[in-house]
Design goal:
Layout lengths: L6 H16 L3 E3 L17 E2 L9 E4 L2 E5 L1 E2 L6 H19 L3 E5 L2 E5 L3 H17 L16 E4 L2 E4 L4 E3 L2 H20 L3 E2 H11 L7 H20 L5 E2 L6 H4 L1
Antiparallel strand pairs: 1-4, 2-5, 3-4, 6-7, 8-9, 9-10, 11-12
Helix pairs in contact: 4-5, 5-6
Protein name: Reverse transcriptase domain-containing protein
Organism: Streblomastix strix
Pfam families: RVT_1
Length: 246
């Protein structure tokens, strides 16, 4: 992934990169060795296995580098963990013929054929083992089943439903209709409010095309507002989103 930033940011990153090269945290790498670009700059903590280094590369000023160490054990570890998981999940999605739904380290695999799903599940487990990720056997469900608990929801593949608790349903509908009234009335809402709504209804992508359209419309509009101003800024949601939440 090429560096994208201002001249000042490039100067700061160059200084940091030079320090990491001196400390042997980062090493140069040939372009043909690259397996995957990693979009973050990391700090030293634990050694990266040589076979994993081609998946942690980045490009800066037309030179290619990879990390010899990873930052687990520091206050920034959650950020880097998410980035590492994202990279592996994308590799999984490109190499198996099944639908993959994930939220950080929670993963749900969907396939119509039971035996194929079982084989692909093992391939996913093997992929994570290769990158030194350990599966929680107590919380994991690895045998194919038509029902599964995922992100505290009960997913039923027989009738394509995802159920939440009744109390959560009521609160969810309240938030949805409240947002609908604000949009219809043309009142200003904060970017944070739309982000909160997106997070709550994100699961609907798996069941309804209309939900994906709503989320795309809403996310696009709040991203524009956040980019031009800040997350605490107010905005008026475009009326095009209304048919999708009726």
């Amino acid at each position: 992934m090429k560096f994208r930033g201002t001249v000042e940011e490039a100067r700061e990153n160059k200084i940091m990169l030079e320090e990491e090269l001196k400390e042997n945290i980062v090493i140069p790498i040939r372009k043909k060795q690259i397996k995957w670009y990693n979009p973050t700059f990391m700090i030293m903590k634990a050694k990266v296995q040589s076979e994993s280094q081609p998946y942690l590369t980045f490009e800066f000023q037309n030179n290619h580098y990879t990390y010899r160490t990873i930052p687990f054990g520091t206050k920034s570890s959650p950020i880097y963990f998410v980035k590492a998981m994202e990279t592996i999940i994308q590799q999984v999605k490109m190499n198996i013929e099944t639908r993959v739904i994930n939220y950080v380290d929670d993963i749900l695999l969907l396939h119509k054929n039971k035996e194929n799903l079982k084989n692909m599940t093992q391939r996913v487990i093997d992929t994570f083992k290769y990158f030194r990720f350990i599966k929680n056997t107590k919380k994991s469900q690895t045998e194919p089943n038509q029902t599964a608990i995922f992100l505290r929801w009960k997913w039923n593949q027989t009738n394509s439903t995802a159920k939440m608790k009744l109390k959560k349903q009521i609160l969810f509908l309240h938030d949805l209709y409240y947002m609908r009234r604000l949009i219809k009335s043309g009142k200003e809402i904060t970017v944070k409010q739309t982000v909160k709504l997106i997070r709550k209804i994100n699961y609907l992508r798996q069941q309804f095309l209309e939900a994906s359209l709503l989320l795309h419309t809403t996310d696009h509009q709040n991203a524009q507002a956040a980019r031009l101003k800040r997350w605490n800024t107010t905005m008026i949601m475009n009326m095009n989103a209304i048919p999708d939440i009726n």
